[in-house]
Amino acid sequence: MLAALERLGTIAAVAEELHLTAPGVSMQLAALERELGLALTRRQGRRVVLTPAGTVLALHGHDILDRLSMAELELEALRAGSSGRYALTAFPSAARTIIAEACRHLLTDPGSGLELTLTTLEPEDALSALATGTADLAVVHSYSNVARELPAGVNSTMLGSEPVRLAVRSADRRSSTGGTIELGEYDRTPWITPTRDVTCFDMVDRACGLAGFRPRVVAETMDFAVQLELVAAGVGVALVPSLAVERLPDGVELLDLAHPVERALALAVREPSRADAGVRAISGAITAAAAARLTR
């Protein structure tokens, strides 16, 4: 009321703007003066003007009203999912492809004011970040021969799946039947695998175990580009998800497996965040980007 009086100049005008009675406005201003122990208004003819104390408070009132208006606008944008800050994590090959495309869509959308921070984490660490609240969304994977459990309170939505193929040097390719190969044909071949602390290694170990042998590992790396270059150098063979292949080195082939292995991708969020409009907007962009690259 004090800010409106400073702007409008009369009690009657304040009452009309705020849909109150003039006596009601006068009573509330008088109550504020008693609370503060300071005179905030004084008569000047038929007008009521502000004292120096009233002018100071009125200026603060204008600032408060402006901030409230800004807060209302920002809350409305959050309800609509067009603004807000969110932390996203994904494993590297998904970040390079699906997440990069989703970010491109969100950044070029004129109606979006969403702010994203991105980290690249393997699924085990990504789910821990999600459970502890340091990430709001996480793109994780599991393999058809290695199940993944989600922490309590975390929900996931399937994005799609991709085949895992055997990367071999063309000169080292064994015989094949019907366009597919049996892993058992490479039981005596050196193997290049992910590091032993992640499910990607378990996938290789179990696929080879199903074929009747344990892989003789000569190199370990989480970088699939490095794995492919080592295959090209004749170091060994590797099982590689298709999304991880950015460039196939010369002389390297990707062979389909007679007993297929697939990598499934999922978008995980905390259960309470599923209704958040910003999370839904980001999820929609990620889902659309995944649909262009993965099979269902």
TrEMBL record:
Q: Which positions make up the signal peptide?
A: none
Q: Which domain of life is it from?
A: Bacteria
**Any Pfam family:** LysR_substrate
- Domain HTH lysR-type intervals: 1-51
Q: Which UniProt keywords apply?
A: DNA-binding, Transcription, Transcription regulation
Q: Does the keyword rRNA processing apply?
A: no
**InterPro entries referenced in this protein's UniProt entry, alphabetically:** LysR_HTH_N (IPR000847), LysR_subst-bd (IPR005119), WH-like_DNA-bd_sf (IPR036388), WH_DNA-bd_sf (IPR036390)
Q: Which PROSITE patterns match?
A: HTH_LYSR (PS50931)
> SUPFAM superfamilies given for it?
Periplasmic binding protein-like II, Winged helix' DNA-binding domain
Similarity comment: family membership: Belongs to the LysR transcriptional regulatory family.
Q: What is this protein called?
A: LysR family transcriptional regulator
Which organism is this protein's natural source? Herbiconiux moechotypicola
Taxonomy of the source species: Bacteria, Bacillati, Actinomycetota, Actinomycetes, Micrococcales
